[in-house]
Amino acid sequence: MSVSVAVIGSGPAGMYAVDGLLKSESGHDFEIDVIDRLPSPFGLIRAGVAPDHFKTRNTARQFMRTLDEEAVRYLGNVEVGRDLSYEELKANYDVVIFAIGAYNDRALGVPGEGLPGVYGACAFVGWYNGHPDYRDLDPLLDKGGVAVIGIGNVALDVSRLLAKTPSERDGSDICEHAEAAIAAAPLDTVYVFGRRGPNEAGFTPKELGEIRDLKRCAVKIDPAQLPDSVPDNIDGRVKGIKEKNLGILQDIAGQDKDLPVTMNMTFYASPIEVLGTDRVEGLRLERTNVVDGKATATGETFDIEVGAVVTAIGYHAVAPEGVPMDGGVIANDKGRVEDGVYCVGWCKRGPTGTIPTNGPDSREVVDLILEDISDGEKPGRDAIDALLAERGPRIVSWPEWQKIADEETARAAANRPRERFTRISEMLAVLD
Ligand code: NAP
Fold first, then answer.
1. Shortest-distance atom of ligand 1 to CA 48
2. What does each C-alpha distance from 1 to 26, 33, 89, 99, 378 come to in angstroms?
3. Are residues 124 and 162 in the same domain?
4. How far is Cα 222 from Cα 266, in angstroms, rounded to an integer?
5. How confident is the model over 6-61, as pLDDT tens digits?
6. 286 CA from centroid of ligand 1 (Å)
7. Whose CA is nearest to atom 42 of ligand 1?
8. Which of 337, 399, 348, 393 is CA-nearest to residue 80?
9. Pick from 281, 311, 341: which residue ends a domain?
């Protein structure tokens, strides 16, 4: 009997796991259901990758071929926790793999964080990428200043998208509603704050290089904040990345450009309060020192005037009821959660790494699954289909999603690859 598998989440980690199972030479036949709460597949490739990072977006192509495989069935618009419970998954599939990502913003934990005008990167990026959950975010971009907290690649993605001219966003996948709002914003200053220094930053040279060369935006860095070198105790590949980063930062600090938008990149500054009464009016920060790798407070504070704050400080997972959690991830031992249940990707290891990082990570979990399983013994699709028929979600199949995607391409403006549907009802209207 074939082994029935449910993969919850169709982002890169889940799709690499599907691919790993299909390519395994274990002698098992697999019947794999890929379940996603949205009609659209591929998780962060659609909702998280920057709209102007075309090459990264193209990684979806390999996963399209995986969904074409006969053993694989896509169940879009089916939510575990709403349409199926964790207990039902365990009762009916031989193997359950959670690949639900970590799609929830971490909180800063400072006073004023709840004011209108503070957005987590998950929400802000989801908004410009047309994620249905954030379609109506309507961020307050009506003042000259925006602060971005964090010095990882997500912070640079957000800063770059804001600072580009409309023509620099030509050809990108940004949604119309976000393009219109960003193009109309009276932006003059983007502040980027890191609580530690350049050697501790999470960003990488490609993303840093992209902000150096913007048409309407001059990046300002205080040269006194840049170290002379990368410490010797950082090893190999990481050291190479840090050295390249440092070279680009020194290059930026040496530039003297005068352009309509300034991007002030400030290290060793940690937000301690969002200022304002009815909305964001400013941000109070405290200067830090890095001691034993950690940011420590100095007591010296300063304020800036901004109308919005975007926090790009990392994410945490939220799993369906009953799934054991350990802080911001699903409780697991190298991907094993409990009998027949596994997790991969950001919900397993936390929000680190690029899309390709998930390849080897998911394959390692597939190896554990292959060690653990015997023959298929649970009811699989028949029982699941009966439950779904009772509950009645409008399931979106892989061919149906392709029809919706074709419609997105057909309605694109001349300078865009597609115009996404940003509401589930609009996606379903293409089908029904
Ligand atoms: P990240 O690289 O971990 O950056 C998070 C940033 O937030 C760090 O600078 C961190 O500072 C800061 N931070 C955390 N808590 C804070 C707090 N309470 N106050 C102030 N600052 C705080 O993560 P990310 O940018 O969210 O990216 C997630 C992963 O996706 C990364 O592996 C990233 O490389 C990857 N990604 C890649 C690309 C790409 O390849 N183009 C694009 C986007 C994302 P500390 O270091 O001091 O904690």
1. 43
2. 14, 16, 18, 25, 9
3. yes
4. 8
5. 999 999 999 999 999 999 988 899 999 999 999 999 999 999 999 999 889 888 99
6. 19
7. 153
8. 393
9. 311
CA of 70 to the centre of ligand 1 (A): 38
Looking at the structure, do residues 221 and 183 belong to the same domain, yes or no? yes
- Both 339 and 294 in one domain: the answer is no
Q: Give the mutation target among 58, 154, 274, 291 for probing the ligand 1 site: most ligand atoms within 8 A of CB.
A: 154
What's the pTM?
0.97
Does 234 score more than 90 pLDDT?
no
Same domain, 93 and 163: no
Pocket test for ligand 1, best of 313, 347, 355, 361 (most atoms within 8 A of CB): 313
User: Looking at residue 235, what is its pLDDT?
Assistant: 83
Pocket of ligand 1 (CB under 6 A): 53, 108, 149-155, 157, 194-196, 200, 202, 207, 270, 295, 312-314, 351-354
| Same domain membership, residue 219 and residue 164 | yes
Give tens-digit pLDDT for 338-356.
999 999 999 999 999 999 9
Ligand 1: atom nearest CA of 108 is 18
Secondary structure class of 189 (helix, strand, coil): strand
430: number of CA atoms within 13 Å, CB side?
Answer: 23
Residue 104 identity: N
H or E element: which one contains 46? helix 43-47
User: In the Cβ-directed half-sphere of 316, how many Cα atoms lie within 13 Å?
Assistant: 10
Query: pLDDT tens digits for 115-167?
Result: 999 999 999 999 999 999 999 999 999 999 999 999 999 999 999 999 999 99
CB 255 within 8 A of CB 219: yes
The values of phi and psi at residue 201, to 5°, are -65, 150
Ligand 1 binding pocket mutation candidate from 118, 125, 151, 270 (most atoms within 8 A of CB): 151
Separation of alpha carbons 86 and 38, rounded Å:
18
3-state SS of 202-253 is: CCCHHHHHHHHCCCCEEEEECHHHCCCCCCCCCCHHHHHHHHHHHHHHHHHH
- The DSSP element (H or E) to which 127 belongs, if any, is helix 121-128
- Give the amino acid at 78: V
Q: How many domains does the chain have?
A: 2
Residue 191 belongs to domain spanning: 118-311
**183 confidence band (pLDDT: 50, 70, 90):** very high
